[in-house]
Each structure stands twice: as structure tokens, then as C-alpha cells.
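cron nightly-structures :: item 1 of 1
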Amino acid sequence: MIKYLLDTNILVDILRGKDSPVSDKLMDIGLKRCAIADLTVFELLFGAFVSEHQEKNLPLVEALTNRFSILSSSAAYREAARQKALLRQAGQLIEDIDLLIGCTSITNHLILVTDNLKHMHRLENIQLESWS
């Protein structure tokens, strides 16, 4: 059963080989309990395509993302639009991709694992964890 949605910044740390508690936590809870949003795949692929070492980074991104269940963000559009309207009224907008990833975790009743707590905590009904 999937319990966690991993934000893009968590996977970037893994790809960069950062020595962090994230890898240990993933091993403890198991990869099958974690998923990623389709937009995370997009962000990682974009990063690989614009990197100086595209030929090395593309296979790394594909190998990593293939290890997780990938959730569509389309089911979160309505919630994301509602939350964006609220954030706009409060003058606290966040990036659209971050908003959609956050709302993907909300609509799927998952805990979002992120290092972006500063922005993500603005979303209503979101469950957040930082493994750093």
C-alpha cells in the first residue's frame, strides 16, 4: 500500500548522490510504499535534458523513476484550482507544478515527502514530512 508521495527535490538529492537520511528512510519503509507524480518525472527529465551531461543523466533519471509507481496529477486539477484561488486571495501563490504535486498527494491521501515545507505548508489538508 502506497503511503508517501516523493517530491521532486527528494529524487534530485538521490540522483546527485547526496549523503542524506532519505536513502536510509527509503530502505526502511520500502520503495513499494512510495510513489511519485507524473510531474516529478517531467521535472527530472527536463533537468536531464538541459544538463551538461545529458547522455549520463537521462538513463539515471529513467532508472530511478521506473522504480516507483507514477501517479497522474490530472485527478488533482480541481483541488489544485481551488487551492490556487485560495492562495491567490491570500497573496501566497506557489509554483503551479509544486501546487499540482502537493494536490496530487492530497487527492490520493498520501503524505508528501519534501524539503519544500516553506511553500507546501500553505496548502489545506496536506500531510507533510521532511526526511532530511
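cron nightly-structures :: done
The chain has one domain: 4-129.
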